[in-house]
Amino acid sequence: MPEAHSDALRPRERILLAARDLFHRHGIRGVGVETIAEAAGTNKMTLYRHFDSKDDLIVAYLQSVALEVDEMWRDFERDHPGDIPAQLKAWLVCAEECVTSDERGCELANAAIELTADNHPGRRIIEELKTNHRNRLASLCRRAGISQPEVLADTLTLLLEGARVSRQAAGSKGPSAKFTATAEAVIATFKAKSKPARRSR
């Protein structure tokens, strides 16, 4: 990913990159627009030329995260066309990377904690993205022929969310280290339920 101050990027892109980095490291409310502008190699006047307010910048930041998540799902389909079990495995690999590679936790969950006003436009983006992600996972489980796909999707979602919080609180050697093994065991259990019971002779 290019640096936020790279001359190869347009001012709006530099500002978004800087905002995303600072929001993730210090929190949305812990960073002001002046700090973001400085990190982007520009000034507040330029920032407000591209974004009407800090809230407008927050919305653009969350939308950029949503676009990355959409691209992730498209990658699963492109890399494993028609192979649903492989796509589910790819999701698991991606989820593990999210848990192990980022001690700051989920950007969306962190943002939701800070955006307490129900009418903040950022909350709608977060809720829609989280719901869409869960529904896509349920669809993947359903197409894999797994029993109770919605319940499995909810279970995996809760497991992932919990693992990311555990990574923040207990470090990399805490319960989050067992995320993949636990998720695989959960999937195996649901798969076993999908198999028809043998008739006794």
From TrEMBL:
Superkingdom assignment: Bacteria
Span of domain HTH tetR-type: 9-69
Ranges of the DNA-binding region feature: 32-51
Keywords from the UniProt entry: DNA-binding, Transcription, Transcription regulation
Any single Pfam family the record assigns to this protein: TetR_N
Signal sequence residues: none
GO molecular function: DNA binding
Presence of the UniProt keyword DNA-binding in the record: yes
Protein name in the entry: Transcriptional regulator, TetR family
Organism of provenance: Bradyrhizobium lablabi
Lineage, highest ranks first: Bacteria, Pseudomonadati, Pseudomonadota, Alphaproteobacteria, Hyphomicrobiales
